[in-house]
Structure formats: structure tokens, C-alpha cells
Amino acid sequence: MHDDRSAAPPDPARELAQAEDADVTVEVDRVAVDGTYVRVSSIGAPGDRAFLLVAGLGIAATYYERLAPHLNENGPVHALDLPGFAGVPRFRGRVTIERYADAVERVIEDLGLVDPVLVGHSMGTQVVTEVAARRPDLSDLVLISPVVDSHARTVRQSAIRFLRSTLHEPAAVRWHGITAYALCGWHWFSKVLPRMIAFPIEERAAHVQARTLIVRGEYDAMVPRDWVRRLARVFPYAVLREVVDGAHSVMHAQADAVATLAVDHVAHRLPDRGVSSLQRVRDDSTSSDLGRLSPGDAWMLVKSRVIELFGMARNDDETLEAAKSAHAVAMADGDDLPVDPADREAVVDAVAPETRDAPEAHDALEARDAH
Fold first, then answer.
1. Is residue 8 classed as helix, strand or coil in its secondary structure?
2. Residues 193, 219: contact at Cβ < 8 Å?
3. b/e per residue, 5-41, with b = 16+ CB within 10 A?
């Protein structure tokens, strides 16, 4: 008898979760760029398609810690700490989104990546969009919480919207943000912020040939539903998804749903496209991951995080490797995620009726969010 389960895609995170003695190695390397370097944290075995993860303004690659292990289906996952963030030395002179895109392109070339899947969050979506606009050879792009809404491009508007979003973030995300911004420093943060707010992502989107998945959280005030719908009209090929109960850092707080969407997008399992493709998905498993940790794993989680921050502050890659690997082991031991395609419904909910193609339904949801 043929067993359909044998055709299921591999899920390294599930394998780690089921192992008695999980073993995860995170490798940390540096790629020299423009008088400084990009720190690259890698997980997974070599393969045909790598995922390249770019975080947002002031944020460390640590924000992807819950997402990265679930993307290693077709190749390794590389998460980047860009110059000025996570303890990496800053650029000298003027800084722009284009300069960060130059750095990401250098990483692609240095690592010898062929058609990597670029994933960006927040300001990282601007960086990867700029890279994709320059490189028609790239096939797939994933934008998580793309900024900045063209109808709200001021520091004041962005700050208010960001604060509204943080009300819906879990405590772990807030802690990540506080420590990451402390390492970044106000001077550099305030130098890059105006560049992020002014960057016209919609103008560069028109030049992107890659198939693009756009994901937002339900309560992400920085990335309103109307904004992603306007973006979808500009990208030549865009698929829209909204994660129920998610906010701006949806790739951390609802990592299972976002990972499933990203993998399905690359595998061409999300055939719909355009403005009418906006559908809602649900994540009922990520929030309970930490609850599955044993006391020993929970202590390892806290201890490794403190050591990782110490390693970032001192630019000590060996300490970072050890801390990140220990943290990944602790998280893997706490995971218990579905792997079979038939089980995906346990992670990603069915399409909500109110987000079907009818424009009236979209407008009603936007009116609700405005209140």
C-alpha cells in the first residue's frame, strides 16, 4: 500500500522536537562589506534553495529564532545582522536603504547562493525589495510587515502606529525589542529611521519580478490592511495573507503560521494572487511552545539569551555560536508541530469568510480596524 505520508516535506524542527537528545548547531560567520561586516547566523544542511532573512530597524537576527528552524526544507537558513545592529560596527558616512541592499547582495555573492528566497521584516522588507528590484534572477520574495505606509510617512505617525502595535505583542517580543534597540543605540537608530520612513518601497516594487508573498498581523497598526492591498497592486505578482491576532512582529509571535505560508509560497501551494488574494490564517500552536518547555530547557533558554547578548556586545562570534545553538536546542525540545501536509490545517486556519473577494467585506474590516 502506498503511504502518502512518505511524500511529506521534511521538517527539521519536528525531528528535533521528537529526538531524545536534540542537537542544533548555529554557525556564525562574517561577510566584509563597505568598511564593516554583516554577521551571518546559519542553520541547516546545504541544499538547492537557501532562505536569507533580513530583520528590521535596530533589530537582531534573533527575531527570527522561532521562524528559521521551520524554513530548512530545501536548504540552509541564513539570518543577517546588518551594520549598526546587534553589536555589528556601523557604516561610516551616509547610510541609506540602498547601502544596506548593497550589503545583502555582497552576502549573496560571498556565500555563493543561487536564487535564495529573500525574507524581510519591517525595514528589512525595504532592503530585500531593493535587492529583488535589482536582480531579476530571484524567484521568490517574502515580505513580513512591510513598511512604511505611503499615507503615513512621518516620524510622528510611525511612532504612534508602532506603539499601538506593541500593545498586542507578547512580553518576549518587547524584551527582544528593548535589548536590540539598546545595542543599536539612539544615535544610529535616529540616523537610519528617517531613511526608512522616506523609502518609497512601492516604487521599487514595480521593478520586482519575483513572486512575492506579503504577510501582515491582524493588529499591526504600522501595516494597515489598506496599505498591503495598495502594495499588491504595484508588485507584478503578489499574494496577501493576514495572521489572526498577530501584530508587527508576527514572524516571532505567530512563527508557525508564517513559516507554513513561506514554505507553501515557495512550493507554489498558494496559487491565488492580487488584491483579492487577501486571506486570514490562524496560528494556535506558537503561543504554547514555551509552555511545553521543561524547567531545564526554560533555564537554558534564559541563560543562552543572556550569553547571546553578552556575545553581541563584545563582538564575540564563538560565544554567539554557543549561545544561539543552546537556545535553538531548548526551543526545539519545546516544539511539537505538525509535519504532514494533511495536518497543516492544525496550524493554518481555513480562510475566513469575511476576507473573501468582496470589496465590501475588505472595507468593513478596515473600518473596524480604524476604531
1. coil
2. no
3. eeebeebbbbebbeeeebebebbbbebebeebbbbbb
pLDDT value for 23: 52
Phi, psi of 178 (to 5 degrees): -60, -50
**pLDDT of amino acid 296:** 67
* pLDDT at residue 226, rounded to an integer: 96
- Cα dihedral sign, 182-320-247-132: positive
Q: Which residues 6+ apart lie within 8 Å of 210 measured at CB? A: 118, 132, 138, 139, 140, 141, 237
Q: Given this model, what pLDDT does residue 46 score?
A: 81
Dig out the grid coordinates for 76 from the structure.
540552509
Mind listing the pLDDT tens digit for each residue in 150-189?
Answer: 999 999 999 999 999 988 887 777 776 777 777 788 888 8
Strand 117-121 and strand 51-54: the pairing is parallel
What single DSSP character describes residue 348? S
- Which regions in the chain score pLDDT beneath 50? 1-22, 333-371
- Spatial strand order in the sheet of 77-81: 27-33, 36-43, 77-81, 51-54, 117-121, 140-144, 211-217, 238-243, 279-281
pLDDT digits (tens, 9 = 90+) for 223-248: 999 999 999 999 999 999 999 999 99
The three cell numbers locating residue 261: 505560508
DSSP secondary structure letter of residue 134: H
Q: What is the pTM of this model?
A: 0.80
Helix axes 186-198, 155-166, angle to 10 degrees: 110
Which ranges of the chain would DSSP assign to H, the alpha helix? Answer: 12-18, 97-111, 123-134, 155-166, 171-184, 186-198, 201-205, 225-234, 250-253, 255-266, 295-314, 317-334, 359-370
Residue-level pLDDT at 291: 56
**SS3 for 86?**
coil
Contact 217, 280 (CB under 8 A): no
Dist. CA 128–CA 142, nearest whole Å: 9
Q: In this structure, are residues 106 and 38 in contact, taking their beta carbons and an 8 Å threshold?
A: yes
